[in-house]
Design a protein that fits this description.
five-stranded antiparallel sheet; 3 helices; 2 domains; alpha+beta; three-stranded antiparallel sheet
């Protein structure tokens, strides 16, 4: 094996340089004497250029936040907290208003259903114990039990609650509305014709407090079955 081949295999990055001759050679001179006087210079390999990938981790020198950056982040955090608190407040008020409306609807349905049923089953309206046209109204009905015994039913308002009283001794059967609902208006209007009698009921219920307070007005009309 030739010496040039041996050098190339041992030092692949060695480039032969000829001394004492004009110009830069591309290889060893053909003369053995000149080949012996050749000087070899080591050329390091060129660095490889590698493109950074999207998954490469780069490390940057650590540094703190400036005063402007700190104030900006504090302001951004405060704004975010304000938006969250406003959202929670709106949701809380909406839920409270929804519950108040549900209580009003439930109590109104129960109260009006009982009053209409008692008016339809009554024999007549006791004018002496009734109050018509103003708030708080009072309605007294003369009716009978299933066994045929005389019975008196009276509807009135006390302490913001709709009360039902039965029998001649004024025994209170209880309140028709819950403690979370207030009867803010109750008016009875007597309807009298040549053929029948009836009662028109106007009732306003309120529930809740503050921004979640709700108030609704209800109307109902019932005719005495025994009057026609």
């Amino acid at each position: 094996m030739k010496k040039s081949q041996t050098l190339n295999m041992t030092f692949p990055n060695v480039i032969p340089v000829k001394t004492g001759i004009q110009g830069y050679p591309t290889g060893f001179p053909p003369s053995r004497e000149r080949q012996k006087t050749a000087v070899f210079r080591y050329s390091p390999p060129a660095p490889r250029i590698r493109r950074a990938g999207i998954f490469d981790i780069r490390y940057f020198p650590k540094r703190g936040f400036s005063l402007v950056e700190t104030l900006f982040y504090v302001a951004l955090l405060a704004l975010s907290l304000l938006v969250v608190m406003q959202t929670l407040l709106v949701l809380t008020r909406s839920y409270a208003a929804f519950r108040a409306a549900g209580r009003i609807e439930r109590d109104a349905a129960l109260s009006l259903e009982r009053m209409v049923r008692e008016v339809r089953g009554a024999n007549n309206i006791a004018d002496a114990g009734s109050v018509f046209g103003v708030h708080p109204g009072r309605l007294r009905l003369n009716t009978t039990t299933a066994a045929g015994a005389a019975r008196t039913v009276e509807f009135s308002v006390s302490g913001g609650a709709l009360l039902l009283e039965e029998a001649e001794d004024g025994t209170a059967a209880g309140a028709l509305t819950s403690s979370t609902t207030t009867v803010s208006n109750l008016v009875f209007r007597k309807i009298t014709t040549t053929r029948s009698q009836g009662v028109k009921i106007e009732m306003t219920l309120s529930s809740g407090s503050g921004a979640a307070a709700r108030s609704e007005r209800f109307y109902a009309t019932a005719v005495l079955r025994n009057s026609y």
